[in-house]
Amino acid sequence: MRSKPNQAQEDIMIKDLQRVIQLNDLQAREILNQTQWNLQKATNYILDIQKSGIKIEEQFKKYATKQSLVIDENGISQFCKELEIDLMDPVILYISYIFKSETMGIYTKFDFLYGFTILKVQSTSELKKVLKRLKDDLNNNQEIQKSVYKYCFDFTKQKNRKDIELRFAQGLWETLLTNTFPIMKQFLKYQIQEKDQKHISRDTYYMVWEFCVQIGEDLSKYDYKNGAWPTFIDGFYLYMFPNHKQ
Amino acid sequence: MSGIILNQRFQKVEEMCLEHARILKQNLFAGVQFKLPKQIMELNSEILNLSSEWSRSFPKNAHSQQNAKNDGMEDKLINLYKQCLNEFVTDLYEQFKETQNQKDITLQLVAKHYHDYKAYSYWLYKIFYHLDSSTLSTVGADLHSLSLEAIQKGYFKEGKEKLFSTILDVLLESRQQEILLDKKVKSLCELFIVMDAKSVRLKYEREQSMYDYICLNFQETEKSYRDNFENKFIDETKKFYKVQISERKNLGAIEFVRWALKVIQLEEQMSLESYSKSFDKIKNSLNQLFVKEQAQRLSTTTVQYLLSVDGITQLGELYNLISREKDCVKFIAEEFTVYFLSQVRQVNQNISDQSKQQSQGQNKQVLAENLCNQILEIMEKAKDIIKTQMQNSSKLIQAYQNAFTTAFNEVDEAPFYVALFADMLIRSDKGINEIETDIKLNKIFTLFQLLYQRDKFLQHHQKFLSQRLLNQINQNLNLEKNLLQKFKGETQTNVLAQLQNMVNDIQQSLRFISDQKIHKNQKFELSVYLLSFGCWPIGKIQDEIIPPLQMINSLSLYEQIYQEKNNGRILQWTFNYGSGEINYKIQNDKYYFSVTTLQIISFLQFNQEDQLTIQQIYDRTQINQIDLENSLIPFICNKILQRQKQDLDTFSDKNEIIKLNLVFNNKQKRIKMLPHSKMQPKRERKLGELTQEEKEYEEQLIKQREFVVDSQLVRTMKSKKTIKHFDLLAQCQQMITIFKPDVKFVKKRIENLIERGYIKRDEVDCNLYHYLN
Questions:
Q1: Fewest Cβ atoms closer than 10 Å to its Cβ: which of B113, B418, B650, B708?
Q2: Taking every annotated instance into account, which residue ranges of this chain make up the domain DCUN1 (chain A) (predicted)?
């Protein structure tokens, strides 16, 4: 029984794994976690995926760019068409979450390899068959919703920043939250006055989820004076009740 | 055998005893002084003998103690004693029954009865006292208790209703007359106090010829006293005054207060006099009626009115009444707050109206003076009232602080006005009278304490301080130091250290000059202030300016001497500050011009030539256009220099020639020519320009504040490790005194610290924060 590695050791293992094959940090961490941080097992697992994923690779090549390195927006557009879903459909975000894809707008080969394997499908048409189950999961299971929501922050975020632009955040809220939490419809109407709030921090983003779950429609539960809600959400509360500002 | 003899002797004793008892009784009734006849002593010893002989002849044993026959001598004697008492009591009661509802007669009679009975009991006791120890074992009570019991059964029990209503009537008369009347009521009250006591002693005060039952165990009397007297009395009192109060509903508040205080005084007096056991309960009842139930009504109708008409003493009277219940003072405090809030807000409004009427900077001084002086005056008045009329009550002081702090900070420019006011006061202080200086400093400090935005105040103060310190006439170093010391005691900030450095700089500069005895160049006298870099609110240091030759030597000399003492330090000359005097000789006249350093530098160029183009002046001095205009145009306006263009035109044409007026003549030999706004070209007051400076100050202030809050937050997190949001917020606001951070500001800083990785939220509880190392 190997003892749990510390932060530095983890990072080294991730880097080691990335020398085997091109995969992002999130995927590496996920796989290593599954194999109890045994580098050998993880490597084997990856090689297995590669061996049995020939059909997946072919599928990937159909969408990929000329150089066959990644799938860009055009490819994704095609992908969605074949899945018969809208580009804005939240299930595509769920799929990206399963893929553990790193950046919105790009799918790598390993994204497909890993994701399709997890979903136990080999092609887009097979994926289409499980789509309904995925949609149901996303709509009904709050745990999954939460995980996908949280994942989307990093998914949307640019590498050099710690926050995301407000318009992207609003897009995510609309896509992921408005169906389950009707209060978000009002939330999206809320425009901030201050200039410096064109970005949403991770903490604020996560707290919007908490806001939906804990408060939701019933704004009387919102503790404006003593609660630890971010000022962005306070702003929304005041937008709804301007006379509470005292 | 001896029993019969003893019994015969007993009968004799009985006769004598009863005989003497009656004599005693008659004497007492007649109020005659009597002497104890010798026979009393014989009786006494005879009783002793009887009882001891009997007990010798018929000793008690276990059987006879349970004998209920009462044949023993002791029992007979005890019964004799009781009989004497009861006869007396019966007589008393007969007399008592006959009194009707004439309270005065009843009062006198009962008082006398009580006195007589006590006297009688006392002397009876003298006869029988040998029996004392045995009565305790046979009857369970000593002689005195028996005496009390007798009067209780035969007199008090039947008569207590009447007694009570007599007391009530007498006191009612006292109340109506509003003075304490008959003191005899005390003895009636005493009856109630001692009844039911099982262990008493009868005492005789020879000087006052008074007899008193002394209760040894008060708890025995508590219930009787309460039931028969206290509760009923207090109820009647309450009823009485409830009616009185409702009759006076329409009375003016102060009249009511005065009446209430009189009533309370009277009742307390009555209580102390006659029934002091009930003093506390009565006091509480009165407080309930007169204070608790009236406080709010009285406060809301009078306090503000009295304050507005300066009814100071009446306020004191009101306070005297209401402060009897500590809690009720809050009503006065609330009214106090409201009144002074509105007073200060009125002043604020006036000032704001005045400022809208006026246009530009100069009259800010008048505004500042008005605002500050008026507010100080009101504060003085309020403080005085609290001190002289309200015993410095802490609730009132709290209200005072709240009112003034809240209202004063509603003035947007309060920090600026206070700084300006301070500047004016300090400048006008010649340092002669220490007391007056102290008063001034205290004024400034009082206003400082009111401010929330103290950092903003210090920003302004720094600017004014710099102006004062750099001008020799206005230097008052001790005063400045004292003031800064006061501020230091009130709040923490780095800026204060800067200010103190500024003062120290000047102090050291002066010392350096006198220590070094800087060689005085005859042609150019130099006096230098050494300013520490970073402490002074000086803008850009214009070190590109080229001083004229005459100055250079002196400057170099100074630099040299300084470097010798302080090797390695960098000196820069701030030619854009400073002032001096030019000696100008022309047409055989000598003139003295008061000017700035830049003016010196620019004008001295004319030592070399009689005329120069603007470009030339610029080349030689590197003074920028605006400063050059400000410097030379006063010379032009005073006709010392001449130019081709109009006096107040700008120096935009670099080829324009400026020349000396060779026939310059002026009656005044001393001319002040410091740059003046009237002697400047009309520049477009680019609103951008002035507010540029203000913008920078504002940004600096915000950055400082962010830093202050950040460091407080981190400090707290470091020590607590884990803390709830509410507590973190509260701690932060409590510890920061340099300004008043509002919730939103602190929250934003918390968010910032989360982003920077200093704090994180708890996974489960969103209101909990953890410190990250």
A1: B650
A2: 51-241
